[in-house]
Design a protein that fits this description.
Helix content is 68%, strand content 0%. The protein is mostly helical and 78 residues long. It has one domain. Helix 1 crosses helix 2. It is elongated, with a radius of gyration of 16 Å.
């Protein structure tokens, strides 16, 4: 998201630290990393999205582009 402009990352980090403190920044990064990790585990083990979640989340998944994220489904087995 911010690969091209590291100054955006620095500005956001400084804003969060200024408004909420360093502990909040660490907590936010940890939560984000945890969710990313859980998605990787689910993709890596082939855990499918459950049937009860497919229809209710279609619009939000399309809106945030989650269906385009790289996952196990996008790679050929080695």
């Amino acid at each position: 998201m911010f690969e091209q402009d590291q100054s955006q990352v620095a500005a956001l980090r400084d804003e969060v630290t200024s408004e909420m403190g360093g502990d909040a920044l660490v907590d936010a990064v940890a939560v984000s990393a945890f969710f990313h990790m859980m998605t990787r585990i689910a993709d890596g083990t082939g855990t499918p999205i459950d049937d009860g979640t497919v229809d209710p989340t279609t619009e939000i998944r399309d809106a945030i582009g989650i269906n385009d994220f790289v996952s196990r489904r996008h790679h050929q087995p080695v």
